[in-house]
Design goal:
Blueprint lengths: L11 H10 L9 E2 L5 E2 L8 E2 H15 L6 H4 L5 H12 L7 E4 L2 H19 L5 E5 L4 H14 L2 E5 L4 H5 L4 E7 L11 H10 L3 E5 L18 E4 L13 E5 L1 H4 L38 H20 L8 H21 L5 E3 L11 E6 L11 H11 L2 E2 L1 E3 L15 E5 L7 H16 L16
Parallel strand pairs: 2-13, 5-6, 5-7, 7-8, 8-9
Antiparallel strand pairs: 1-3, 4-10, 9-10, 11-12, 12-15, 14-15
Helix pairs in contact: 1-13, 2-10, 4-10, 5-6, 11-13
The chain binds pyridoxal-5'-phosphate (PLP).
């Protein structure tokens, strides 16, 4: 879908016309989506592909119940992390056999960051800093804190515009960034940072949690060093789906990762007492993998590869999905400006399409009644969920400096291009307008906070 020309004032009929012209519209049929729900949280937990339910049933009732242990061989369970990894590789600009679908994003980050720190320490005694952003996803920062402690390094956090000058000071060992910011939706120029980092002797570790399956990524062409990403977000792999791990082939065999379990051994079924790391990315495996979850994840990844079959484009299998994603987020921003301008909502996501991923975040800056029990952004999200419009709330870090992008409370709306329509967004913004205009969000039931926001 080429960039849509949007009129000054956008109506529902315009959105319906764009749906009719959408070459990816039929992909929605592949998913189970509840009636009366507009799901704008596929960036947090992707929708379920119909194929996943059938596949899980096949794995449990046939491969597990009937095939029993023989299914490790006969149902090809053993190399499932590799097979799913090869499919993911197509979507992130990597070659076959460079990606493993395995473990969680946090665990994979631990593995690659450990290796990056070992490699950096060997290369230089003077580069002792891991540089990241204050607004990075907390698990990434927690993992980095722990590893820095073990390796005698320092974790330094800065704002996006401070990264380049900080890198040039020459003491950064590893630049650890999340490609698309989970809060603002802002996207880094991966190629530029890889180049800059390489020029000052630093390694790059990328977290693709909010970009894999949302934007075209070129890990090899852009010369990244290490990357990890998530299976349950845009990849639609299901709750707790295995994540993935990619290592630039130039590093793949220089170091053994620290979680040296038997699945990463060169010959696991030789049952030798001594560890010997497998070749390539296989050494980044640790132990026995969740086969049922991996089977579901494969269906999720297939659901995105299906887009590239509908609209073949040699430049990148994500191209058509990216074009639709940008059309959706542009439409959403325009509708917010057009229909919600009077209610103190500010779009914090970059307007420049090249600088954003596939979600849009809003800040609510209107004054809140004095006895209000929670953030107004939280209450507005709850009031929308009660109407079937599912987005989410991301709390700001009150201890971050006032000017920091980590500071504000945000309403966050994700646009999974595989199953959302343009009319969905029109209706979602209309609900938002009604919630704000009626002040329905101030009702007490929307102020009760739950464990998972
Ligand atoms: C969602 C997300 C994670 C999740 O990590 P888990 O190990 O799956 O809990 C990690 N990093 C980022 C940037 C994320 O957005």
């Amino acid at each position: 879908m080429k960039a849509i020309k949007m009129p000054e004032s956008i109506g529902l009929v315009d959105c319906q016309r764009w749906d009719l012209q959408d070459p990816l519209a039929s992909l929605r049929e592949q998913f189970v989506l509840p009636r009366d729900v507009i799901y704008l949280d596929g960036n947090s937990l992707g929708a379920m592909p119909k194929a996943a339910a059938a596949r899980v049933q096949q794995v449990t009732e046939h491969e597990w119940a009937q095939g029993l242990i023989g299914s490790w061989n006969h149902a090809h369970w053993f190399d499932l992390p590799n097979r799913v990894g090869d499919k993911i590789a197509q979507l992130i600009g990597a070659s076959p056999a460079q990606v493993l679908a395995t473990d969680s994003t946090s665990i994979n980050l631990f593995k690659v960051l450990s290796v990056a720190l070992c490699a950096a320490a060997k290369a230089s005694q003077t580069r002792r800093v891991v540089l990241s952003e204050r607004s990075n996803f907390p698990t990434d920062l927690y993992i980095a804190q722990s590893l820095c402690q073990q390796h005698g390094m320092t974790l330094e956090l800065c704002e996006a515009n401070e990264i380049a000058p900080r890198l040039q000071q020459g003491d950064v060992a590893v630049l650890m960034l999340t490609h698309v910011d989970y809060r603002s939706g802002g996207m880094h120029d991966m190629a530029a940072f890889n180049q800059l980092a390489a020029s000052v002797g630093a390694l790059t570790v990328w977290d693709l949690a909010h970009s894999a399956g949302a934007v075209p990524i070129q890990l090899e062409a852009d010369a990244a060093d290490f990357a990890v990403g998530c299976g349950y977000k845009y990849f639609n792999g299901g709750p707790g789906a295995p994540a993935f791990i990619w290592v630039n082939p130039k590093h793949a065999e220089t170091w053994a990762q620290p979680l040296s379990g038997w699945w990463g051994h060169a010959r696991p079924f030789a049952f030798k007492a001594d560890y010997q790391a497998a070749l390539g990315v296989q050494r980044y495996a640790c132990g026995t993998q969740p086969i049922i979850s991996l089977a579901a994840l494969e269906c999720g990844v297939d659901s995105l590869l299906a887009a590239s079959k509908l609209t073949p484009d040699a430049s990148h299998p994500m191209r058509a999905l990216r074009e639709k994603s940008l059309a959706l987020s542009t439409l959403f921003m325009r509708l917010i400006e057009q229909r919600c301008a009077d209610f103190g909502l500010v779009v914090v996501t970059p307007k420049d399409p090249a600088k954003r991923g596939s979600h849009v975040s809003l800040q609510h800056s209107q004054t809140v009644p004095s006895a209000f029990a929670c953030s107004s952004a939280y209450a507005i999200v709850q009031a929308l969920i009660a109407r079937g419009v599912v987005g989410d709330f991301r709390a700001g870090d009150a201890s971050a400096p006032a000017g920091s992008s980590a500071h504000a409370d945000l309403l966050r709306f994700g646009f999974a291009p595989a199953y959302l329509s343009f009319a969905d967004l029109w209706h979602a913004v209309e609900h938002l307008r009604q919630v704000l205009q009626s002040a329905a969000w101030q009702e007490p039931q929307f102020q009760q906070t739950q464990a998972v926001t």
